[in-house]
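Hi Prof. W.,

I finally got the Hydroxypyruvate isomerase prediction working! I wasn't sure whether to trim anything, so I left the full sequence exactly as given:
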Amino acid sequence: MPEGHSLPYVANLSILFKEVPLLERAAAARDAGFTDVEYWWPFDTAVPARDEVDAFVASLDGVRLRGLNFYAGDMAAGERGLVSWIGREAEFADSLVVALGIAERTGCRSFNALYGNRIDGEDPAKQDDLARVHLDKAADAAAEIGAQLVLEPLSGADRYPLKTAADAVAVLDDLGRDNVRLLADLYHLAVNGDDLDALATTHLSRIGHVQIADAPGRHQPGTGSLDIEGHLVKLQNAGYAGFVGIEYVPEPDTVTSLEWLPKTRRGRA
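And this is what came out:
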């Protein structure tokens, strides 16, 4: 599939290589030819124990950490971020400190700040006000190390307010920060009915990261109907030069699912 573009790939190890424990996935990805990886929040709490953080950082031997989510709450229970969650400000602040500490040790320079669901009984405008405060604070901290934040529209989460690229860009416009950008996940945007062609023609200058999975199904390229290759070619031709995160549910297993991607295209020097 990737013959038409030369964008580098990064393996998301919170969804790939789940055949092995999380701390063994970087080694598995390295053995499969990847040099660059990304993760959702790799801990169960906003403030993991020091030895948990040390073990995670040590597990990255031989690969480069390119992206990391801030703590997003209980994802399995449907929580999707704390950026706008009134009452959980301390958890967001704590996970920001932890993430920056990991960045200092690994060179990671991109953080996914999941916006958070709408909460029963809370005024959406007040949630958005809190999100602005949190994003400003995180953007300041990221800027000190030359890093970016990315905002991601999501599918399958009815209470999550960012569903299209335009939804996220509206937040970016309101915030006015150069280092807070759009995470364009082709799967989520397609499932939500967004115009993927507009990523290259309308939103290119706002994109900080791209992720892929086929739709329907959220499996590897070739299992659904998305022209993933065509969209990546358009993005590169329009000027996008960043990473493409591989963030799909592999079928039947990770190694077999990667047959679409030649091993020579999985890593970079």
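The chain has a mean pLDDT of 97. Does that look reasonable to you?

Thanks,
D.
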